[in-house]
Specification:
Layout (H helix, E strand, L loop, with lengths): L2 H58 L13 H12 L1 H4 L13 H9 L2 H7 L16 H12 L6
Helix pairs in contact: 2-6
Bound molecules: heme C.
Heme C binds next to helix 3 and helix 5.
């Protein structure tokens, strides 16, 4: 037995031990990584499912601002819309485009010609109103259309 062997043996087994520990750690690290990947996949899946559930609930839910079309009147519903959105150009004293929306009789003429609804609905062939502004809210358009459907009464 050479003294070299005596020295080398513990060194060798130490080396083997270190390799064993390193291998084990690597394996643990790997399986730990699989755990993390699995967890990430699982949470991604459940997140997708949750968002799907919420989405379908959203689809089923009624719109947040319901449009009340009960008992529409000219004085209570139509006139305020015209005053707020149209009078600055179509008041009797201004009459841009020779259009007057002040006074029921003037409004009724534009109703009967179809120009009022065509303009606010922004149908093809009509000048889109209110000019240079966004469309009226859909509920306002619905209210005007319903009032016209009921014969545009002066109530
Ligand atoms: C910024 C000014 C302005 C505002 C606000 C405005 N209009 Fe007009 N409107 C005009 C002008 C200018 C014309 C004529 C020129 C044209 O037809 O493009 C006109 C034309 C019209 C016409 C005739 C359209 C056609 O094609 O025959 C109608 C109806 C009308 N407006 C209704 C409305 C109503 C209803 C509102 C409010 C919801 C409104 N306007 C708001 C400027 C305006």
């Amino acid at each position: 037995m050479s003294p070299g062997y005596l020295w080398s043996k513990p060194a060798q087994s130490k080396l083997l031990l270190r390799k064993y520990i390193e291998d084990t750690r690597a394996r643990e690290k790997k399986s730990g990584m699989y755990d993390i990947i699995l967890l990430a996949l699982l949470s991604a899946c459940s997140l997708t499912m949750i968002s799907c559930v919420y989405n379908s609930e959203e689809d089923l839910a009624p719109p947040s601002m319901p449009c009340n079309t009960d008992g529409i009147t000219y004085s209570g519903d139509i006139l305020p819309i015209l005053e707020n959105r149209c009078f600055k150009c179509h008041a009797d004293a201004i009459r841009l485009g020779n259009i007057v929306l002040e006074g029921y009789d003037n409004v009724k003429l534009l109703v009967d010609s179809g120009r009022l609804l065509g303009a606010v609905r922004q149908d093809p062939g009509f000048s889109p109103m209110p000019q240079n502004e966004g469309r009226l809210p859909q509920c306002d358009i619905t209210i005007i259309a319903d009032w016209i459907n009921e014969g545009a009464p002066n109530n």
